[in-house]
Every structure is written in structure tokens, then in C-alpha cells.
Amino acid sequence: MAEFGVHHATSKGSKPSIFEIIGQDNLLTALRSAFRHGFKVLAENYPERYGLVHKYFDEGYTVVDSVFQYIHLRLKGGLFPETFYGLKRVPDPRSLDVSKRKVVAWVVLAVVLPYLQSQLELLYKNIREEYSQGTFHYKDLKKRLALLFLKVYPIYNFLWETTVLCYYLAYALKKTDYHSPIMHLTSTKLTHLSFMDFSDDAWQEFIPKKQQREISTKLWNYLNTFVGGITLTISVGAFLSQFVNWWYSREGNSAAFASLPVPPPPKKWPCDTPLEICHLCKKERTNDTALSSSGFVFCYPCIFRFVQENHKCPVTGYRSSLNQVIKLYHQE
């Protein structure tokens, strides 16, 4: 059905504005940040239950989002943020058939590529931090590759951001029909949804009769309803979040907010190690140092070396960096 799920290839629609384009481009990033913050709050309050989920959030979210966007493309003719803004994808008019390979390519470029770029940025920050603090202990080939990465990545990031900006400007000035290099690479354009596109079973008439027997119509109807429910939920959630922000930002609400009861402290992480013992060397702590990502205290040499090598808290497993290693000073 993927060959026909993107069912608006031959329909004509108006060209979206640059504000709609930027809005739908930013929606994917905003949703990822919102879900990450939610799981972070859960992990801080229930670390034994949600700590592992928060640790591998980026990988898990990428897998789930890829599956969801693939289904959304086949049912709605566009990624979720595109249809959320009333837009749909139009393939290259010289090749109207939309194969499964092209749908998968759309998902990879829209979901997997941003994930890889974020991991490259995180790797660059960690290597640069180690290099600036004099803790750069790579050897031989690994060291040369790390130094090369420190030089190449800023150039790549600058060229990429500049290219995206140029495409935005060219699109706003009506010099091109493609708003991003990725869309240009796949010869894909965006246009507004038509009246027919809002029908829940619009995709059915684009499936040849030969394939209707192979496809479970009821299953796709359920998926269509599920995708529509998620869209409605996010729409209502966005409205409610904006309403709550507006409500508490009004003048005169600071006193009412301050009068709310103080929430109970989060549950402590179960640990049998005495307070004065380092969790790593199992000896009495020296040069007490706290890890702000989890709040546990260790010996400075122990936690510095562990975070430098593993980039996480040794007790909770939370992602950590050397910037979160805080030296504690006791008044004598």
C-alpha cells in the first residue's frame, strides 16, 4: 500500500508560506524535547522504574517515531508535523509513483538523520571538553581521528546550517519550490491539503482492486483512527499547555502560586553504601565531589575518571558530563 498511501501525488494545491514551513520543521524538535523533559521528570522521581528509559531515550524515541511517521506517511500523505499544519507531500511530478523505498527514505531523512546529527554534536562537545580540560588521553589512531573530528565538525555544521538558511531565503523569495536541501534531494514538495484529503478513507480508492484482497482494510482503518487520535491529543495538549502558561503568567497570580503546598521530596535511590564511603573505590571519601545529574557524592579522582570514560553516573546510570562534576568544599 505504500506505493499508493501517499495518495495526493497528482492533486494540485497552493504553495505553503515560509512561516508554515518553519513551523512544521520546528514541531518535530519541539515534540522530542517535550517527551524528553517528561521522561526526565519521571526518572528523577522514579529512578528505579524510568531511569533506564531516560538513559536510552534518544534511541527509543527515534525507533518509535520512525514507525509512527512511516504509518502516518502511508495513511495521510505526509509526516505528522506537515499534516498538523495542513500540508502534504507531493513527489516529483516526473515520477508520480511513490515506492516503499522512497517512503522509507523520507522517514530516514526526517527522523534518523536529525538523531545522527544530535549524536555527532554531543560527541563533539564531549571531545572538546576533554581537550580543553587537558584530559585528552586518546592514543595513536584514535587520537588523530578525534583531533580531525574537532577540526572537521565545526566546518560541516557551519556549511549545513548555512545551506538550510539559504534554502529558507530562496523559498521565501520564491526562487525555488524546495524549502530544504533534503526535500530537494528527494524531489519532494509541500502543498496544502485539499478537501478530499480530510476524508478518513481517502486512501482506499487509490489501492488497486488486485491489492485490496492482500490488505486488511479494517487494520488500516484502525491505524487511521489511531493516528487521528494522536493528532487530536497533541493538538488539545498544545492548546492546554499554552492556556496554562498564559494563566500563570498573568499579573497577580504569583501570590496564589506561592501559596500552593510544597511537593514531597523525591524518593531516595536504594543504596546500601554508607554515606561517608565512595561508591566507586569503596573507601572513605577524599576531596568530596558531587555529580549534579544524580546528586551522589564521590571522591574527585574516582568520579572524574569514571564520567570521562563512561559519560554517566555510576549509581543511577544517568547521562553525565564533566561539567556536572562539582567539587565540594567544607568549612574548617
TrEMBL record:
List the pathway annotation. Protein modification; protein ubiquitination
Record's bilayer topology term: Multi-pass membrane protein
The UniProt GO MF terms for this protein read: ubiquitin-protein transferase activity; zinc ion binding
Please report the stretch or stretches of sequence annotated as the Pex N-terminal domain. Answer: 26-249
Q: What is its main location?
A: membrane
- CDD domains linked to this entry: mRING_PEX12
Stretches that traverse the bilayer: 145-170, 219-240
Biological process GO annotation list?
protein import into peroxisome matrix; protein monoubiquitination
The answer on whether this UniProt entry bears the keyword Transport reads yes
- Which keywords does this Swiss-Prot/TrEMBL entry list? Membrane, Metal-binding, Peroxisome, Protein transport, Transmembrane, Transmembrane helix, Transport, Zinc, Zinc-finger
Would the keyword Transport be found if you checked this record's keyword annotation? yes
Tell me the compartments it is located in.
Peroxisome membrane
Which is a Gene Ontology cellular component entry for this protein? peroxisomal importomer complex
Q: Which family does it belong to?
A: Belongs to the pex2/pex10/pex12 family.
Q: What does this protein do?
A: Component of a retrotranslocation channel required for peroxisome organization by mediating export of the PEX5 receptor from peroxisomes to the cytosol, thereby promoting PEX5 recycling.
Q: What is this protein called?
A: Peroxisome assembly protein 12
Q: What organism does the UniProt record list as the source?
A: Oedothorax gibbosus
